């Protein structure tokens, strides 16, 4: 079973991020764009951020996300890594991202 930790996350390639229970990524029909809904807050991430957020399932590591995106866009891995980690860290700092942890018995 996966537990989440949503405070003081330091995002690295080993992290397995996911949206915390209080937030969800949803396509807003009215605005015709993806939004992250959280209590009393709405964040409208750009197209690239949405693609990264859709990979944040709590199972996949940031390293795997970077590899997948670098291959998809035939881009330099180090550039993708810098951008993805910075974006995820920013979302984590704002409380829109948690890190999956294996629950210990």
Provide the descriptors you would attach to this structure in a database record:
globular; 3-stranded antiparallel beta sheet; disordered N terminus; 105 residues; alpha+beta; Arc Repressor Mutant, subunit A
Spell out the CATH superfamily. Coenzyme PQQ synthesis protein D (PqqD)
Distance between termini?
10 Å
Mean pLDDT: 89
CATH architecture annotation:
Orthogonal Bundle
Number of strands: 6
Strand line-up across the major sheet: 1-6-2
**What's the CATH first level?**
Mainly Alpha
Description:
The structure is a single chain. This protein is α+β, with helices and mostly antiparallel strands. It has one domain: Coenzyme PQQ synthesis protein D (PqqD) (Arc Repressor Mutant, subunit A), CATH 1.10.10. 33% of the residues lie in helices and 24% in strands. The strands form two sheets. It has a three-stranded antiparallel sheet, with no helix packed on it. β4 (33-38) and β5 form a beta hairpin. The termini are close together.
Layout: helices, strands, pairs:
Blueprint: E1 2-5, E2 17-18, E3 24-28, E4 33-38, E5 41-43, H1 47-53, H2 62-72, H3 77-93, E6 98-102
Antiparallel strand pairs: 1-6, 2-6, 3-4, 4-5
In short:
With 105 residues, the protein is an alpha+beta fold. It has helices at residues 47-53, 62-72, 77-93; strands at residues 2-5, 17-18, 24-28, 33-38, 41-43, 98-102.
